[in-house]
Amino acid sequence: MSSITKKRLLVIALGEATFDLIVPWMNEGELPTFQKFFEEGSVGNLKSSIPMITPQMWGDIVTGKNPGYHGLFDFWQRGNEGRFKEINGLQVKVKPIWKILSENGLNSGIVNVPFTYPPQKINGFMISGEDAPGAHPSIAYPSKIYKEIVEKFGRYRLKDIFPGGRKKEDYLTLVKEDIEKQTEVLAYLISTKNWDFFLTFYSATAITQHYFWKDMKQGNNEYKDVIKTAYKSLDAAIDRLVKAAGEDTNVFIISECGAGPLISGVQINTWLQKAGFLSFKKSNRVSSEGTAKKSTEKSFIRSKVASFRKNVQGSIPKSLFFFANRNLHWLKSWIQTFLAGSDINWNKTYAFSRGKEGDIFINLKGRDPNGIVGQEQYEKIRDDIIEKLSVLIDPSTGKKAVNKVYKREELYSGPFIEFAPDLLIEWIDSAYMPTESDKDKDSVFVERWRANMNWPTSGSHRINGMLLAKGPEITKNKKVDGARIIDMTPTWLYLLNQEIPTDLEGQVFTDLLDTES
Q1: CATH code at position 498
Q2: What are phi and psi of 487, to 5 degrees?
Q3: Coil, strand, or helix at residue 330?
Q4: Same domain, yes or no, for 275 and 292?
Q5: pLDDT digits (tens, 9 = 90+) for 288-332
Q6: Pairing between β-strand 108-113 and β-strand 124-128 as defined by DSSP bridges
Q7: What CA–CA distance (Å, rounded) separates 482 from 462?
Q8: Domain containing residue 420
């Protein structure tokens, strides 16, 4: 337990926000609130985890433990019986910070944080984040707080800025509008509710960087300022939230990782096939002569969506049908994910890739439904893949694309490591990302497309996120170094004058603490 006097703690997370953009714009006078944090607080990089994927990173942040303990590895991950399923907050296996605080009598406000659905009963309130199926009273605890927000502000905006089903031109006005609407709700909750710890997340920086990085760098085009608009709007939002919390509050601004340009998308299963580890069903392959499989999948998806509309309209309440119809792009995305392994010949496949980061699973007997690899072959196949993948060359650059391929036990420990991928890839400069598209199944390096998008992504992750903090217990005008996302929960517990559980892997990041306050 710390010796500092307990103050309230406000944490504002900005998805994948990076100093690489903030500092130049701040120096041009565009981001005055960030400038104030540089002058009045402590600032430094916040090291992310490998691989950089939302469930894993946020599990690390809110539990202070690695995925082998908290259980979050990917958006779709292997469960019991070797089958893959979409995850949500129910998969978190250990106590997140708000549970620890509740047990100790403190109140938390948790709003829009990834992987918090269904909402948990805590001291305080919780409104679930992106894993919630949509805006509805069931995403909030207590549910009356959702109804209160809707009565005061109108429709609750949960995934309005998400790209599925959006047109590119939507973002010319959507970004600023969405941030402002979110901030109205957050300022209200911060200023009117009882809390000791408040944690919220804005996704605008992550989404705009993924989809508009190339536009930002190309010069004169109508989309070049979409990312800057997100940062400027968030600069104003942070100022408003800090004022709503009051001067006697410690404030953290963090990002779970950074961002930078994407060099290329990568089709890992195509590489595995070319390297002899995976076999495709020939009749379903897309070749240079045709796009039969893609056409078949599109027809299948269209038929399922059409059937959904026909069968449910008139048989469920109009409000529910409206909600479901607005979210059909998520249905289409689910179907595409479901179909991801339908073209694999499992009887001749030794390894395959699933999930958002292209990590690799060995098709193991006794574990995977169609496993063919015996336990005695397991290590040899992993070693062979590491050897071959580690020297993968990107033909567009003539250079290596992979920095390192890790065995899962090199990154994780804990009772749930069995659900992790067998091999995890760290890309050079984090500038490559797996693609979900089937636009060119014959190539390893391709443009990266996402389901239901009509333009490719151009931004990627970077290992260093950002950490800015200021307040009564924070050192002023200090550059700090060495903070990790896994250190956030123990640091926040310390600032709230709570005992740090001995089983946390993260450490209290003392460099930013003002020991003389």
Answers
A1: 3.40.720.10
A2: -85, -5
A3: helix
A4: no
A5: 233 334 444 444 444 444 444 444 444 444 344 434 444 544 454
A6: parallel
A7: 16
A8: 264-280+344-447
Question: Which is nearest to 461 in space by CA: 481, 433, 424?
Answer: 433
The model's pTM is: 0.90
Token pair listed for 162: 């998400």
Question: What are 413-427's pLDDT values in tens digits?
Answer: 999 999 999 999 999
Six token digits for residue 136: 């509805």
* Predicted confidence (pLDDT) per residue in 34-89, tens digit: 999 999 999 999 999 999 999 999 999 999 999 999 999 999 898 887 788 889 99
pLDDT computed for residue 81 by the predictor? 77
Q: What is the CATH number of the domain that holds 422?
A: 3.30.1360
**Beta bridge partners of residue 352, listed in sequence order:** 361
Cα 227-460-204 angle, rounded to 5 deg: 35
Q: Cite the DSSP H helix spans in 313-454.
A: 318-326, 328-338, 375-389, 408-411
What ranges make up the beta strands (E) of 284-401?
351-353, 360-362, 393-394, 399-400
Q: Output the pLDDT for position 283.
A: 55
**Per-residue pLDDT at 226 exceeds 60:** yes
* Residue at 222: amino acid letter: E
Residue 517 located in a structural domain = no
Partners of 432 in the beta sheet? Answer: 264
Which DSSP category does 448 fall into?
A: -
- Strand, helix or coil at 153? helix
Distance of alpha carbon 105 from alpha carbon 111, whole angstroms: 19
In a domain, 2, yes or no: no
By C-alpha distance, which of 189, 120, 113 is closest to 149? 189
Please give the single-letter amino acid code of residue 337. T
With 0-12 / 13-18 / 19 or more C-beta atoms within 10 angstroms meaning exposed / middle / buried, residue 224 is: middle
Determine the length of the chain.
517
Residue 424's H or E segment, with its range, is strand 423-427
Q: For 225, how many CA atoms within 13 A lie in the half-sphere containing its CB? A: 10
Contact 239/231 with Cβ under 8 angstroms? no
d(CA 65, CA 266) in angstroms, rounded, equals 30
Please state, in angstroms and as integers, the Cα–Cα distance from residue 413 to each residue in 57, 112, 418, 441, following that order: 15, 28, 10, 35
Last residue of a domain, one of 422, 447, 472: 447
**Residues 6 or more apart whose Cβ sits within 8 Å of residue 485:** 46, 47, 48, 49, 57, 60, 61, 254, 256, 465
